[in-house]
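Batch job 17 of 40 flagged for manual review because the log was empty.
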Amino acid sequence: MRLLCLIMLLLSMLAGCSHEAAKAAFFKESTTSVVWPPAPEQPRVKLLKVFTGADEFVAPKSAFNTLFEVITGETPQPVGFIAPSGIVSDGERYIYVADPSARLVHKVDFITNEVTYLTHSGIEPLASPVGVALDSLGNCYVTDSVKAKVYKYSPKGEYLGVLGNGTVEFQRPAGIAIGKNDHKYVADVLLNKIQIFDSKDRFLRDFPDPEHAKELNRPVNVAVDPAGFVYVTDAFNFAVKIFDQSGNLIRSIGSPGDGPGTLARPKGIAIDSESHLYIIDANFDNFQIFSQQGQLLLYVGGTGKKPGQFFMPNGIFIDSDDRIYISDSYNQRVQIFQYLKEQKSN
């Protein structure tokens, strides 16, 4: 019995080492060594990886895939990104990428280099999945802007139902974020509201209230920080609005313009571990990093196809290790960066 326990412990340790090795290999720094700002300034962001979702991954072995190979003599090929939108990762194994043009969500397993797909809500196919978020249990929530619903999937990809348990009507859900206590925040573009749901997927409240309806004009994305502050991409006001947990407007960051520090077509937003605000701008083909007071700290990118450049970027997510995942929509790829914290001298 003791020998069996030792063997099981050894196998567990080997599996853990293998997992960490695969994870390190996936996030290995790009050989291009692209950093921002360039030397001689201290780098604050570096490029880690660029991938398209088709060339780097394989379809997992399954009864269907085996039958497909027997009948056709060909191996099923992964679906490449068409126009990736929302993106999220657990930082440990999985990356989910919503792809409305492909009408599916790519689920990338970067430990096994396999990719699977979320394609249906029950028997109904997805129509336009644009936003994705993960709760603390690994369940994935997908906003479908055409079906006007938010779908829930288990960590294994099983369809579990709809957010709000069918009691809430969305008009055009877009961005989605999950904060502490597994509360869900959904940006509804046409309702001009953020709708909030509890850990059991029950509707709690929304904001702004009718008295403050003009505070949002086409909210397309949302993020939540550990303190519970809610950040909303207010597209037609060319700003990101910051609200407290009660839905009171605290401040606005950004203004319309055509240069650094302004916004032209704001999209995805995210917060790093030092509370910096990242804003994707599809018109500038970059992401800009702001302080909590709205000061521009850095902008990364520019128009093009080279690593570190973008063409109509859309979604952004930052994991607990400050890795920055960006869906580079019209380049049909995902780029991953690393935020580099300031090195303090002794």
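Reviewer: the log was empty due to a logging misconfiguration, but the result itself is present. The chain is about 10% helix and 40% strand. Unflagging and moving on to job 18.
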